[in-house]
Design a protein that fits this description.
This protein has about 650 residues and is an alpha+beta fold. It has 5 domains: about 1-95, DNA Primase, Chain A; about 125-210 and about 225-280, DNA primase DNAg catalytic core, N-terminal domain (Alpha-Beta Complex), CATH 3.90.980.10; about 295-410, Dna Topoisomerase Vi A Subunit, Chain: A, domain 2; about 415-495, no CATH class; about 505-645, DNAb Helicase, Chain A (Orthogonal Bundle), CATH 1.10.860. It is built from 28 helices and 16 strands. The protein has a 5-stranded antiparallel beta sheet with strand order 1-2-3-4-5. A 5-stranded mixed beta sheet has the order 13-12-14-15-16, sandwiched between helices. Helix 13 links the parallel strand 12 and strand 13 (about 330). The protein is globular. The N and C termini lie far apart (about 75 Å). The relative contact order is 0.05. Bound molecules: zinc ion (ZN). Zinc ion binds near residues 56, 58, 59 and 61.
């Protein structure tokens, strides 16, 4: 076991493995690049070939090739082992599940999702993967050299697919026979229950009425005379199962490590019209619909390089986009993106473009996906094209306008606001209410407060309702529920969901910084409140901590005298104040002159921001007065606006 790990390490270069994900440049005896695990602009991610290790000085992560692929592809140790063994050309010894993690430093022993894990039915995951991979090869062989060459290949080429992309996505063809694949797999020593568990066959009699084959009928259609292994099925098995995919083009679905986990299969034109256009592998031990992402394996490198992901609706769209020069495209296999899918994507990028069909189903899916993605901290844009078109069509026919559509993608709140305003009358009371509710439920998902404020401002302008009223409505808007299932994002989500949605204006945040600096450096007290505009004075008096501090001097200030209800806020403030001042937390180390300079800047910013906010409020009130036709009020406000601008 340990020798296998050492063997793999000695055969694979750490630079090459990591170089597949991160662009590395030579730096002395090591290699360096931008860390894929945290956001940075100058490289602190170092790869050392001699020690076969990597380390990031920015986020502190590090390890060997195994920990690297586990981290970057989200694999368990046994999965990483299988992936790298395959790359190294090493056949792993069969071993018990328990031994795997435990012997690898002991730290990974809780990874139960191993290659050797066994399903409830006593079927090993490793054998399911073998069935799926063999099935994919079987289908591919039929497409290029078998019956599919005449039936399916011309259809795919007709749809504009190049041979190169057909091979990249490993498309194939499932023969029309009832047991062609099952017989072939049985010939490779897989049992009917294993074939069924992999989702490749259906147990006879399970679906009433579907099984129409007569006893003794052979699995025809296979080219039995042609002795080639993958083209025929020499071992007929008892008729307890039949092939799930028949006479269809097959699209294998891969996991992030590139293993086939299931299939999506499309009916050929002119074939039995009564059947579904696409059928998919059901939930199996290795295929989970809520986690599968069609095209992700092929797209992940481009996603990381381009720092965004493009979501389309269908498999064909993915391939068409790939051909048109957008390899960062992935299909949503269900109706909308799930949380699990997004958590996988989040390891690669946090920018997301939704490119769904313009029909109502597509738009609904787009909206649901946007909400979930915003909630998980993604920045989300929506691509829109003419009604009745889809991504694949545009990619095939007009790459130029496709490019325009992509660059013209609108941030999700703006996109949906435009739609809402097109659908409803934003001048009537009812229209305003409906639009506000619609957009606020989306804005409530936005993680960043400043962004939230931005969208509220836009909504306020558009429908002529005061921002404060919209904020009040926002607070009462329920946030969609997110499960805290994964560690990676747990804290991020937990931080947001349980707390009340309390909005914060920029001035409030700056006000916090002002208090923070005073707490870290009380020598700066008292607050310079002489000759400040009224708005600054009233801001300070509304803020309990600031108004407490405004009554203190360097001589009188005692941390212990801070009222109980503000203690926590104050100690957090002192801590962040030290950070703002660049001190390591040693209070003697604070340079008062430097602190005074920082304070003056922030104090001036607070004053600026308060003025800006007041002017925004006046402008909005003016617009409303204008809409009402109240000339007098409009004039009065205009004077106020002018005065506020002068101060
Ligand atoms: Zn890092």
């Amino acid at each position: 076991m340990n020798t296998e790990i050492e063997d793999i390490k000695s055969r694979l270069s750490v630079r090459e493995v990591i170089g597949g994900y991160v662009q590395l440049t030579k730096a002395g005896v090591s290699w360096k690049g931008l860390c894929p695990f945290h956001h940075e602009k100058s490289p602190s991610f170092i790869v050392n070939e001699e020690r076969a290790s990597w380390h990031c000085f920015g986020c502190g992560k590090g390890g060997d090739i195994f920990s690297f692929v586990m981290e970057i592809d989200g694999l368990s140790f046994p999965e990483a082992l299988a992936l790298l063994a395959e790359r190294a050309g090493i056949v792993l010894e069969r071993r018990s599940r328990r031994g795997t993690g435990a012997r690898y430093g002991g730290t990974l022993s809780n990874e139960g999702d191993g290659v050797e894990s066994v399903s409830g039915a006593g079927i090993s995951k490793e054998r399911l993967f073998a069935i799926l991979d063999l099935s994919s090869k079987f289908f591919e062989k039929q497409l290029w050299d078998g019956e599919g060459k005449k039936k399916a290949l011309p259809y795919l080429r007709d749809r504009g697919l190049s041979d190169e992309s057909i091979r990249t996505f490993r498309l194939g063809y499932a023969l029309p026979g009832w047991r062609t694949l099952s017989d072939f797999l049985a010939g490779k020593d897989f049992s009917p229950s294993e074939i069924e568990a992999a989702g490749m066959a259906i147990e006879k009699g399970m679906k009433n009425g579907e099984w129409k084959m007569k006893e003794g009928e052979s699995s025809a259609n296979a080219n039995n005379q042609n002795g080639e292994d993958l083209l025929h099925s020499p071992f007929p098995i008892p008729h307890s199962i039949y092939d799930r995919f028949r006479d269809r083009v097959t699209f294998p679905v891969f996991d992030v490590a590139g293993r086939v986990i299931g299939f999506s299969a499309r009916v050929l034109p002119g074939a039995d019209e009564t059947t579904a256009k696409y059928i998919n592998t059901p939930e199996t031990f290795v295929y989970h619909k809520s986690r599968a992402l069609y095209g992700f394996f092929q797209a992940k490198r481009a996603i990381r390089e381009r720092q965004h992901v493009l979501f389309v609706e269908g498999n064909m769209d993915v391939i068409a986009m790939y051909q048109a020069g957008f390899p960062e495209t992935v299909a949503v296999s269900g109706t909308a993106l799930t949380e699990e899918q997004l958590r996988i994507v989040k390891r690669y990028t946090d920018r997301l473009l939704l490119f769904f069909d313009m029909d109502s189903a597509g738009q609904k899916a787009s909206r649901k996906s946007a909400e979930m993605a915003l909630l998980l901290g993604f920045s989300v844009s929506v691509v829109s094209i003419g009604e009745g078109k889809d991504a694949a069509e545009l990619a095939r026919e007009n790459v130029e306008s496709l490019r325009d559509a992509l660059t013209g993608a609108l941030p999700a709140p703006e996109y949906f606001l435009r739609r809402a305003c097109a659908e409803r009358d934003c001048r009537t009371a009812e229209g305003k209410q409906r639009i506000a509710e619609d957009i606020l439920s989306l804005v409530s998902c936005v993680a960043k407060k400043i962004e939230q404020a931005h969208w509220i401002h836009m909504l306020s302008n558009r429908i002529g309702v005061a921002e404060n009223d919209l904020f009040a409505l926002l607070k009462s808007t329920a946030l969609p529920v997110v499960k805290n299932s994964e560690r990676a994002l747990e804290s991020e989500v937990a931080e947001r969901v349980p707390k009340k949605q309390v909005f914060q204006l920029s001035s409030e945040r700056i006000g916090r910084d002002v208090a923070a600096i005073l707490l870290a450096c009380p020598a700066l007290l008292p607050l310079p409140l002489e000759n400040v505009p009224e708005r600054v004075f009233s801001f300070v008096s509304r803020n309990p901590l600031l108004s407490f501090l405004s009554g203190e001097t360097p001589e009188t200030f005692l941390f212990s005298a801070i009222p109980e209800e503000m203690k926590l806020e104050a100690s957090e403030g002192a801590f962040s104040g030290e950070k703002l001042l660049g001190s390591s937390g040693d209070s003697d180390g604070i340079d008062v002159e430097h602190a005074r300079m920082v304070f003056d800047q922030i104090w001036a910013r607070l004053s600026d921001e308060l003025r800006r906010e007041e002017m925004r409020d006046i402008e909005r009130a003016m617009r409303m007065a204008h809409d009402r036709g109240d000339r007098e009020e409009e004039q009065r406000l205009n004077t106020r606006l002018f005065e506020a601008g002068k101060e």
